[in-house]
Amino acid sequence: MTSPPATNRSIARLWAASALSAGSTWVMQISLFIQVLRDSSPAGLAAVQLIGTVPALAFMMVAGTLSDRMDVRRLAIGSMVAQALCLLAMVLVLDGGIWITAVFYGLQGLSNTFWPPARQQWLYGVVPPEARPLANARMGSVSGTMTVVGASLGGVLSAWSPIGGMAVACVLQILAALPLMMQAKSPLPYAEPVAKGAGEADAPEPLRKEIATGVRVLRDLPLARSVVWIGIAWGCIGGAYDVLLAAYATGSLGGSGTVLGALYVVDGVAVILGTVLAARIALRYHLPAYAGAYIFQGLAWGSFFLVGHPIVAIAVLGVMRLASGVIIALDTTLLLETVPAGLRGRVSSIHMTTYSGMARLSLALFGGLLAVSDVRTVGVCTGVASVVLGAVWWLRRDRDAERLYTTGGPEKLPAAT
User: Fold this and answer.
1) What is the pLDDT of residues 351-409, one digit of tens each?
2) Which one, of 170, 68, 153, 157, lies nearest residue 111 by Cα?
């Protein structure tokens, strides 16, 4: 199927904005972490990370609700501009103390919270329903691309000068707003009207009530609910991915920063290939492919900790992240395909909030596990857990939701919701 030129141009601009913003975040975080570790301890870095992430987690549901009730183009551009201003402030205060820098880091993260749900609604407004799985796969490739490009650029710039790296991050964030501004006046031909319940007034409901509606509605959306719960479960298991990867690479594999860097490069490339592969999977095979990818991911991740040679480990990690790329590409499509248009922002934010929150909590869990066990044992156990998750998700899938997904239509919700 070939998309119209205007649709392809819109996707390209949203992809470019996503890539530039993600690249900015990579460069900013690496520069910030290097500067903090120069002036403080790992405990100080942990505190800075906490300050930088808690505000974002607290406002994710608000961001999703606003993307359901506002012009998503203004919301997305506002997010980019606010992030650029925060990064500019971080450039100016980075040498002045880590705590004032951490405050602006938290504000940057808060501003960034509004971008993903706004982008998703914007994307669905310019892409016809039958082309959305492919569009989601293209957006999923941003993660892999920026893991390679953003991490490499951030490492080079922060080694030269953390302040210089932060300044480049600010420039990248400004550039990220430009494609959106070019697209801002274009119509949203495929934006779907928000259905109103019987007797519902035209005036918007209070924000708190709309947020609560987004949470309650998952009871009537079995497919979306299943994606949310597997995200929570994988957040608990995979939240310590970076810690386990770095510890095993520099420990059991006897590697240095070069080995760890090579692992991340392969990680990014494999995720890109996985998203390309997912885009070629027919709609009727999406659900088994999603479950199979979790199982395959777990088998490869567990195997990664059983090999002792860096080259073999790099190859096995590539296989594992190939499966992750399939998951990343299909995740958003499975989550939103059966969700009514007026609830997509809130459901997206629930998924992001629960996954991100659990991933951060899992760091504490794995810190305790690693104190009483070795990295290899913990890594193998997380691989087994991923296999179990994929199998349970497939066995417990809702057959009616599966049939509805393959026919391509939002689930019918009671008017009261």
Assistant:
1) 888 888 787 777 667 767 777 888 888 888 888 888 988 899 899 888 888 887 877 55
2) 170
The phi and psi torsions of 205 (rounded to 5 degrees) equal: -75, 160
Angle between helices 5-39 and 42-69 (to 10 degrees): 150
* Residue 27: strand, helix, or coil: helix
Query: DSSP letter string over 28-66?
Result: HHHHHHHHHHHHS-HHHHHHHHHHHHHHHHHHHHHHHHH
DSSP 4: -
Tokens of 100: 């004032």
pLDDT at site 92:
93
CA–CA dist 406, 384 (Å, integer): 30
The token duo for 301 is: 């991740």
- Cα torsion 193, 328, 27, 86: sign: positive
Torsion of Cα atoms, 324 then 276 then 138 then 394, to 10°: -40
pTM, full prediction: 0.79
| 365, burial (CB in 10 Å: exposed 0-12, middle 13-18, buried 19+) | middle
Residue 33, CB-side half-sphere exposure with 13 Å CA sphere: 14
CB 37 within 8 A of CB 100: no
Measure the CA–CA gap between 29 and 102, rounded to whole angstroms.
11
Structure tokens at 339: 């969700």
Residue type, 321: R
From the list 291, 295, 313, the residue with the least C-alpha distance to 304 is 313
- Decide: 352 and 56 in contact? Cβ < 8 Å: no
Mean pLDDT computed over every residue of the chain: 84
> What is the signed CA dihedral for 154, 155, 157, 158, rounded to 10 degrees?
100
CA-to-CA dists, residue 298 to 220, 322, 354, 391, angstroms = 30, 12, 21, 11
Q: What is the dihedral of CA 153, 154, 158, 162, to 10 degrees?
A: 120
Task: Give the pLDDT band of residue 20 (cuts 50, 70, 90).
Answer: very high
Mean pLDDT of the region 131-139: 88
Give the pLDDT confidence score for residue 19 in this predicted structure.
Answer: 93
Reduce the DSSP state of residue 392 to 3 states and report it: helix
